[in-house]
Specification:
Radius of gyration of chain B: 21 Å
CATH class of chain B: Mainly Alpha
Helix content of chain A: over 70%
Helix content of chain B: 55-70%
Low-confidence stretches of chain A: 1-15
Mean pLDDT of chain B: 86
CATH architecture of chain B: Up-down Bundle
Order of helices and strands of chain B: EEHHHHHH
Number of strands of chain A: 0
Number of helices of chain B: 6
Strand order of the largest sheet of chain B: 1-2
Oligomer: heterodimer
Structural class of chain A: mainly alpha
Radius of gyration of chain A: 22 Å
CATH topology of chain B: Four Helix Bundle (Hemerythrin (Met), subunit A)
Distance between the termini of chain B: 55 Å
Largest sheet of chain A: none
Mean pLDDT of chain A: 81
Low-confidence stretches of chain B: 1-26
Strand content of chain A: under 5%
Largest sheet of chain B: 2 strands, antiparallel
Chain lengths: ~110, ~220
Amino acid sequence: MTTAEHEHGSSADHALEHSHPGATTYVLVGVVLAIITLVEVFLYTQESVRSFLVPLLLVLSAAKFATVVGFYMHLKYDHPLFFGVFGFGLLVGASVITALLFLFGQYPLPAHAG
Amino acid sequence: MTHTAVPVIVDSGAAPPALEAPLELEHPHTSTGQDNRKLLMWAFLASDCMFFGTLIATYMVYKNRSLTGPYPREIFDVPYTSVSAFVLLLSSLTMVLALSSIQRGEERKLRIWLGATALLGCVFLAGQFYEFTTFYREGLTLSTNLFGSTFFTLTGFHGTHVFIGVFWLASLVVHSFRGKLHREHSLLVEIAGLYWHFVDIVWILIFTLVYLIPD
């Protein structure tokens, strides 16, 4: 590798570093994820929130999912093409789950009167 | 011809690249302007979303439809599984720290964080093995009831993904020890990281939908 190439490589690495968050952000995100998991387990043990436990857990789980994808997988910082590709698969996966749950009557739709 | 992992820098002036000089990133010469290996990994992860979507849907459709026990409430140990969830979350953190290290050219730290990630993956797998054997001793097998079939299929496939990830990370550590993994190869670590984080987000969903949401 020539000196010029080496300089270019180093500059590229600098640019790449700047496009991704640093170690401090990663640790902070890790702490947030750990706290959300603790909250999830705490809610699971509480009888008082039993009636709305499912939506609460789903929201917290979605928050963890989005945080990992956004910060650790860098989808928040990367090219929108990656978001589009992954988002399509995610949408299909989520649609399959939702459709099958309704289709097999886990969450029956309200019957029409008359 | 393969494309370089690190984008080429186009310097705007004749002066040597200084920190204050504006830098332009030139994207890889592909039809999308993005590295094809990274794009392929995202496409694979998208397909894996559909794969795990069907497994999760199957588990949920057959939830509470087992005619015989053991039932989830009788055998799940949520505090124990919470520790497993923490271990996998922690491994995601060590994985991004490994990526951050190689991007800064700190190869010793890279090996430490990659090794830590692989080790945490092994701890998760050991925990899953213990859980599976405990369930087996309590009478739950793949063919006992609908719960057993769907639970073992879903978590078993996830465990297989973790196993492959551990193998991948270990190979990166070996490559690094052999002096074949430097900062210009950071994309290789980033792609392995994408896979590893995906394994983590799948567990985030499984932990909530299978273990925490009551019958």
